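> tool_call: predict_assembly(chains=two)
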Amino acid sequence: MPKRTDIKKILLIGSGPIVIGQACEFDYSGTQACKALKEEGYEVVLVNSNPATIMTDPEFAHRTYIEPLTVDYLADVIAKERPQAILPTMGGQTALNLAMALSEKGILKKYQVELIGAKERAIKLAESRESFKEVLTQVGVDFPKSGLAKNLEQGVQVVERIGFPVVIRASFTLGGTGAAFAYNIEEFRIECAKGLEASPVSEVLIEESVLGWKEYELEVVRDSKDNVVIVCSIENFDPMGVHTGDSITVAPAQTLTDQEYQQMRDASLRIIRAVGVDTGGSNIQFAVDPKTGRQVAIEMNPRVSRSSALASKATGFPIARIATKLAIGYTLDEIPNDITKKTPSCFEPSIDYVVTKIPRFAFEKFPNSDPKLSPAMKSVGEAMAIGRTFKESLQKAMRSLENKWWGFNPISERRKLRSGTSWVEGVRQYIQTPKADRLIWLAQAFREGLSLDEIHVITHIDPWFLRNIEEIVTEEKRISHWAGRLNDVPFEELRHWKRMGFSDNGIAYFLKSSAEQVRAKREQLHLKPVYKMVDTCSAEFISTTPYYYSAYEKKGDDLPSQSKAKKVVILGGGPNRIGQGIEFDYCCVQASFAIREEGYESIMVNCNPETVSTDYDISNKLYFEPLFLEDILHIIDKEKPEGIVVHFGGQTPLNLSRKLAKLNLPIMGTSAEAIEIAEDRDKFRALCYKLEIKQPESVTVNDPDRALEAAEQLGFPLLVRPSFVLGGRGMEIIYNSRDFQKWLLKGTEISEESPLLIDRFLNNATEVDVDAICDGDDVEIVGMMEQIQEAGVHSGDSACSLPPMTLSTEIQKELERQTRVIALELKVKGLINIQFAIEKGEIFVLEVNPRASRTVPFASKAKGIPYAKIAMKVMMGKKLKDLKVQEKPMDLVYVKESVFPFQRFTGTDVILGPEMRSTGEVMGVGKTFGEAFGKSTIAAGFPLPKSGKAFLSVKDDDKEVAKNIAVQLSKLGFELCGTRGTAEALSQANIKISTVNKVNEGRPHVVDHIKNGEIQLVINTSALGVHEVGAAFELRRATLMRNLCYFTTIASAKAGVQAISEMKKINSGTHCLQDR
Amino acid sequence: MSFFEAALYLEKGHLFEGKGFGSEISKGGEAVFNTGMSGYQEIYTDPSYLNQIVVMGSSQIGNTGINRQDLESSSLLLSGVVVREYCPVPSNWRSVQTLSDYLAMAKVPAIGEVDTREITQILRDEGAQRAVIFPTKGLKASEFKVQAEQLLKSVPLMEGLDLVSKVSCKEPYLFSEEGWKQNAGTIVVYDFGVKWNILRHFGKRGFKVQVVPFNMPAEEVMKYSPKAILLSNGPGDPATVPNSVGQIQKLIGKVPMLAICMGHQLLARAVGAQTYKLKFGHHGINHPVKDLSNNKIIITSQNHGFAVRAETLPGKEVQLNHINLNDGTVEGFCSESLKFYSVQFHPESAPGPSDASYIFEHFIRGFIQ
């Protein structure tokens, strides 16, 4: 069937900010959808609140709205744009839920908008667990016994019928929030209550536990003529009980016979047909009892997902792109296979390699949270690797994670174990619970002599996977046999180890040699990898798409070079983590576009399957490889590029730049030397001194015994930071000697190699982020962003405003001047980011990053200029004056607000500090700062209340400012209440405020009031970065769990009140990027 | 188990050294690749692979061992197995034996640790060719090729080779499994190397499944008073079974006929069409086929080296009704008046998707009931 001509304009809904469970895989799917719709001549309207996405760049859609993803704002866009259809399946659960809400509120009907891709009925059937089970019964697919409960009482009845253990899942949530196990009635009551609270419809599903069963996922695509194909089967390494987003997963499925696989495939076909997903992709999960082979369906997502992104990268079958084309009427046989170009998309990809995905976690950022993996997703990113065998792909994936693993690093740290147990016993206990690092402990278990059977009984991990790890451990012993005799190692042995996926570092470890020496030995033996293609068809047809992975085979799949163009290699950002995410993928993709525009060949290297950068048609060539020195050097050796770009992928490639520079490899743009000056405290201090630019007084300590003395000399409060860090890891503000001594006891390494930096902390200072591009002669300011939280809150966590809301013209000019001189002095060629703090009118420079920063996409969207692209062109030798950047006057205010994963990490305090903990960001656009900030809080999911009761509890320093805030709140009609201290201080200033009890002051206390819904706004400040336990902590958790608007710094509270006031007066509606 | 040194040699001069498993003997055959990611047990026990060395694209083989249920015949008739990595310790609840032991019992050599992607590309570009797997113990590397060339001499060319007579049953027999009712009449199956799953499709629908040798005269077949005749799959070149074509011609129009794979090619020849050898054949479980009667697409299981030439199908009475979407080749034809239905792919799958299993229903409803 040809494409539909009754539709001209299509609205696409994005997934909003990056949160755990919904990350840049939806930028990938949304970007593909935009491209596919544009290609077919439709007018595309896009709404997404996330400015860091590639899809929200003005060239991807015709009409782009960076607006809060709520029914009201979407209705406004629909009224303005009048699309005929909405494609709701590309923006994760967020888009699907919104589409349903638009339908239920009658907005679709009112404006005659049709849902394409998945209809209301299908979404309802798949999403409501009750109706999904009915569907399964109808089509004869088995599922775990279960029952629904709307309250605890019903829950207990259900569990009496099913028996323990049970799993409890909250209805209508994403990423498995609120899914938990219960083994007894006590646990059940707790978990059931939590689930009911987490579910927006206050409903939980209680299920027979299939804990320990094998877990599978099938990616299914269906067209309007009922043709169905399975794109990929994925097998989880971790058995049932760990969320699939937190599991190590492998494609294709490895331990199913054809008969069992076909049974699963048949079931998937029956399910997708019965649910009635007419067109597009779905993901269906199954569990298999390893003892009997009994198969049960677990759940279905009637949309593209994280797994479909993974499946797309794993097979070369672009699910989101195809699903989009199907949604507009095409059938599978009408769409050519993009990779082979010769065959149709109506086929099932066959792959002749093994793909392994390993999740990446950030537990270190959330002290006191439970590190146990569970059905509720906690990982923040993932790395994928392709290898000829599972062993090779697993070890490649491990070194892609960038967590210092070069493979199965042996474990010597025994402090993680309980005292009194033997080491072997300790290891045995450790592997019982799934945790972020269990993988390397499994190898340790083999090293300690535990048997495969024993490990299987403890972990329920399929023996096939364990056997592969055992083989790797066995091979380690063979490598050790050659210890100290690298030169004697025969070619065949070395080749065998490389084929098993050992990195040079791994081999060096067991040989007691160094990675450099192993590499030299390999070079001498001419042992290097070849590159094979991801071709969707196991080589059955010739493919011409340069999507590569490395393999230690004899023959590669090299295509003859397409052109004589000079090549540029871009090193991507690797797995997402807190502090390094989609913003950097945005920059890499823009850089690739710029390179192509300049007539060069762009070559992308990355290992993150969620990203746009790893889409095979973004760059001229794609290497899906670890961002690990060894693997990068192989690519550079093969491609011999004109230049290597390290400045766009965040800290990952930047950390590699020095090593690459040492090998005389051509780093483009700003030199590795400049990067080092910026990162080395002493060198940077000298530079500032020369330029007469102020820094907070600071001291570098490399002897732990001298630390306290140095700190006291500098004076409190102060900021401590270990060197070369990402996202403020380990940074803390310390207010007095006693706390400093306590901090020292935590055992941060302080040495020559790893000096400790101590800065005087600027109290109540305003922080400003300035991004700029320098071409060596000229400097162009990209954006000056004033942070709403005071200095001391990590810039990645603070909300910020563009243009600045309080800075005088004079200060702004001076900030610009300082940015210029620093950029020119460092001979920056490309992007630079500088963080300034202004304390009592005085400017201090805090940090200089001569690379793309997190704020580049935000500034680009706000100002409508593709700065990352311009920076890349500058790095390639263009001059700013020739690029003619035309700045338009800014008549709107743009506010970035951060989004945090606190709800997933129970036990963690929400207080902000110098350590970054946000996962994503949203943008609010308005006529005034207040409106823009107000919208950003709506987009971030904690909307400002318009009226009601405000609770105040502020630290002593903040009481003066709090008075003004209280007065304004009263004027706005808010009733006030506060803790004793705050209430007294405000009462003295003649402000009407009632006193409420703290949690430890008897009941009813403030948490009771919050739970009863009597409080709408919480202002609760305490020392930055100091995580509390007890009363204050309980208050903040309660606030969080009720989704109340809260402020933990006085500066943001001030901005919030201003926003409440202005939101009452101004509503400028939605703003289209292209209308600027 | 332990691996042994072994090599694979393709007649156009490609040598691959690897690790042997299965039987430590030399054996030759036609090398073909298979892109299926599951179902090695069904593939290896499919009689259609007689005289062939099967190169698996999928890189991990042996993971689920061998079980008692997923057999497609009583023996292993292929000449050799080539894999990227063999898993010696299977993991599956139904597994009763390792693949290596199973191959060793049937005297089938196998080789692992070779780049099956590269071999697939060679077969794709140069076409299917003869090959030999042999142990290399005691040989110097320089002698490998000489040894291989020597072994190849005894490997016959596939074209013109009569393999059907080797795999067909010698005597008629009834095929039945537990619980079958056998009250819906008799289906006579001409055994050109039949896969058991085809028989199961009829058996479980209540038919009495009478398997007969490939060369049984039509008159004798008629003595069974069959409700329908099934022309089965089988190995090799359809041109080598001319006698069967004659028998089929006698039966056309008298009894409804369902033809699969080799049977399909023989039926084509019986109605006057030609068959030809494909460059590298179709061996996989992901081939898209369009049913021209309703324009629906099914993902099919395929295993054939020869195909029917579309333009030689007689026009009026015979309708082309299935085509391959990858290369446009003939996947099926039918005739209402002559009461037959013929498909190139395997509707019984095993291994592969069950998308095409409706063909059995369709045939039974349209031609028998």
